[in-house]
Structure formats: C-alpha cells, structure tokens
Amino acid sequence: MANTPQAKKRARQNEARFAVNKARRSRIRTYLRKVEEAIASGDKEAASAALRAAQPELMRGVTKGVFHKNTAARKMSRLTSRVKALS
To answer: Do 32 and 67 meet the contact criterion of CB atoms below 8 Å apart?
Structure first.
C-alpha cells in the first residue's frame, strides 16, 4: 500500500488512467468485432464500412498509448486482407 503522499497520488492517477484505457480498449474491440461479424456474414459492403470506421479508432488507440503501433498495423493489415478476399 502507498504510504507517502507522492505514492498515494500516483496510485490515484494509475486508477484513473486504468479506467480510461480500459474504456478505450473496450471501444476499439467493439469496432473490431463489428468488422469480424461483417466478414463472417459475407457482406463486403458492410465489412468495408465497418473497417473504415474501425481504422481511426485503432489509430487513436495507438496515439493514446493503448496499443503499440505495430500491433495496430498488424490488425489493420489482417482485417483489410480478409475484407478484400470477400467475393
């Protein structure tokens, strides 16, 4: 447990940051799940629209420090290739 005032403040900041990051990560996962569902349904229009909506959210997660940029790039690359493969 934090004892010094500095450590107590740091613990409060960590809790607040954790809550923000958790919400942001959840939001991004929701967008990615929508793309996955559209791919599974086989609807190329819906999948590409969902992908266009998911891309800025994923990149925002990178700038906010939730995801590493290579992780986001890998996810986008894989989703894009799967959407392109739809007939």
So the answer is: no
